[in-house]
Design goal:
mainly alpha; 9 helices
């Protein structure tokens, strides 16, 4: 998640260019705050009325077992080692492309294996027929999380600087091709692959393994998701509550479609805020 940066000079030293550079971020924060207040009030009213936040959809337990989950993890780790081989100073564009290929390759391999083991399209979490509802869930979730989590990320970034290949990549270039590559990587591929691995493969199995204790299943998968982002400063801290929200949605719907949409929208906001900052090189 990109840092929300405002000029840190004294007020008398703030130039017009500083104000203009900060204006899009301030406007985005105002909109995000308004959306958060609106959504939080809706959630509070539903809870006070004794209503469920998200009605559960009919679903069945996933057919895969612990050994299937372990095999998927092993394939991903081996793929990461293979794609990570080479010069340490590998160009950033190569690293982004490698990440895309790794994510998609391991996801399709995992899907093929699970289908070989008897999983159906619905078992894999790509459940159709709920597009309007999925979009509403994603937009409502975004309104609820984007403001507090981006503010938390910005505060943590002041303690330990956020590190990510996308931040470095866009810091040095802003061509149309560069932005398109980032959008494909962060807004499309990462949400699809990560929601499949963490919310469906891992959490789906955990919900079967600890049947009746959904909070435990969601918590473990959320911890795994956060841990997978270690090495990116303190980004794993705000990513945990985001993962909990995504896990709750997956548990209630039995689908990763609304999770992918919410994850993609959240990353899109982060990329958009990053693009409002001036290039560093």
């Amino acid at each position: 998640m990109p840092e929300v940066m405002l000029p840190d000079e004294g007020l008398s030293d703030v130039s017009m260019s500083d104000v203009q550079a900060a204006a899009p971020q301030v406007a985005a924060l105002v909109v995000a705050l308004a959306a958060f207040v609106w959504m939080a009030r809706r959630v509070a009213r539903r809870l006070q009325a004794g209503q469920t936040l998200l009605p559960a959809r009919p679903q069945v337990a996933v057919p895969w077992e612990a050994e299937d989950v372990a095999l998927v993890v092993l394939v991903y780790v081996l793929g990461a080692m293979a794609f990570g081989a080479g010069p340490v100073d590998k160009p950033l564009v190569d690293r982004l492309v490698n990440n895309i290929v790794l994510s998609l390759g391991t996801m399709f391999a995992a899907m093929a294996w699970l289908q070989f083991r008897g999983a159906t399209r619905n078992d894999l979490g790509f459940v159709g027929g709920h597009w309007q509802g999925d979009v509403r869930i994603a937009c409502g979730g975004l309104a609820l999380v984007v403001f507090p989590l981006l503010m938390l990320a910005a505060a943590l970034n002041a303690v330990v600087h956020y590190k990510h290949v996308i931040v470095d990549f866009l810091g040095g270039q802003r061509s149309g091709a560069a932005v398109a590559l980032v959008v494909v990587s962060a807004v499309v591929v990462a949400p699809v692959a990560e929601e499949f691995f963490f919310r469906r493969v891992l959490q789906g199995w955990l919900q079967k393994y600890v049947a009746g204790d959904s909070l435990r299943a969601i918590g473990i998968s959320s911890l795994a998701f956060s841990a997978a982002h270690a090495g990116q400063g303190l980004a794993f801290v705000p990513l945990f509550p985001l993962a909990m929200v995504l896990g709750f949605i997956a548990e209630r719907t039995g689908s990763i479609v609304p999770c992918i949409l919410l994850h993609g929208l959240f990353n899109a906001v982060s990329v958009a805020l990053l693009l409002t900052q001036p290039p560093t090189g």
